[in-house]
Design a protein that fits this description.
Largest sheet: 15 strands, mixed
Helix content: 10-25%
Distance between the termini: 53 Å
Number of domains: 3
Strand content: 35-45%
């Protein structure tokens, strides 16, 4: 069986600061997509570009630039296909992370992507390329792209999950090449001063998930509190508080005994009364028709 242990402190939460917010329904239409394109400096018209859509998204293309808006979440992606994460064979990013963050904040403010005051820098990424020739011994390493990721903060509380993020892509010349923005609009406070479950209750809930056949040690090594925002293609009505656990699974038997074999996580509702499921239900498996039997006689 699996053993369950905790190696970190539970989050300390000031309950009086916690709310449940009702989110505004996503407004995704050809008109709103063109408005996004206009804010990003494109001509934004059906004469200058093309619009197409399906059940999942609307795409506007103008020259090498493309804007994708997702119906379910309202999330928007913009990128210049000729420059976004493209290696021209010579470019190398030489500015540091501090400069990249300053550039990204300026792009966010200039193009009205999200309120800068509601952001915190989550990380800075660099796209590395390299060449190594065995025959000549020549080697080269360059950075062709920098990405600055911002996470959403609501009343001082971080937003966890795949949503509540904005990522700005910058090339070696310091020019904007793309923006990913998954940042749902808040309409109003649904519940004020939300009664919260205790961290211990959520830990016990997570431990029950590992009451399964098998062996190993499950260690909770990170325990966070925040609001949770869903991914690109998930419709979400509320921004609600959650506990997020990150766990390491270590083998206790066999050749890998003592080695970490996988990472896992658990997401638990923090509110005593959660207004909606944190994770969407999995679609039910469609029953398959019986396969027709064929006779091999006479072959």
């Amino acid at each position: 069986m699996f053993t369950f242990e905790v190696s970190c402190k539970p989050p300390d939460v000031a309950q009086e600061r916690v709310h449940i917010f009702r989110l505004a329904p996503p407004r995704v239409s050809q008109k709103t997509v063109l408005a996004h394109a206009r804010r990003l400096g494109l001509k934004a018209s059906t004469k200058a570009g093309t619009l197409c859509q399906d059940a999942r998204q609307i795409i506007y293309s103008e020259g090498s630039c493309k804007i994708v808006a997702h119906h379910a979440s309202g999330g928007v992606r913009f990128f210049d296909q000729a420059r976004w994460q493209v290696d021209d064979g010579t470019s190398h990013v030489e500015f540091d992370d501090k400069t990249a963050i300053s550039m990204a904040e300026r792009f966010i403010a200039t193009h009205s992507v999200v309120p800068v005051a509601d952001c915190k820098v989550l990380r800075v990424t660099r796209l590395n390329v390299g060449i190594a020739e065995k025959e000549t011994g020549f080697s080269e390493h360059r950075v062709v792209d920098v990405g600055v990721v911002f996470a959403r903060v609501v009343d001082g509380i971080p937003v966890e999950g795949p949503g509540g993020k904005a990522m700005v892509y910058i090339d070696a010349k310091g020019n904007l090449t793309g923006i990913d923005c998954l940042w749902r609009d808040v309409r109003e406070i649904h519940t004020d001063h939300v009664p919260l479950r205790s961290p211990d209750e959520v830990l016990k809930e997570a431990a029950r998930e590992w009451d399964i056949e098998g062996s190993g040690r499950v260690t909770v090594d990170d325990f966070r509190f925040g609001y949770f925002e869903q991914e690109w293609d998930v419709a979400q009505r509320y921004l609600q508080p959650v506990y997020m656990l990150s766990m390491t699974v270590t083998a206790t038997e066999g050749e890998q005994a003592g080695q970490a074999t996988m990472r896992s996580g658990y997401l638990g509702a923090a509110a005593v009364e959660s207004p909606e499921r944190l994770m969407p239900r999995r679609p039910a498996a469609s029953p398959q028709a019986a396969r027709q039997r064929y006779s091999t006689q006479g072959l």
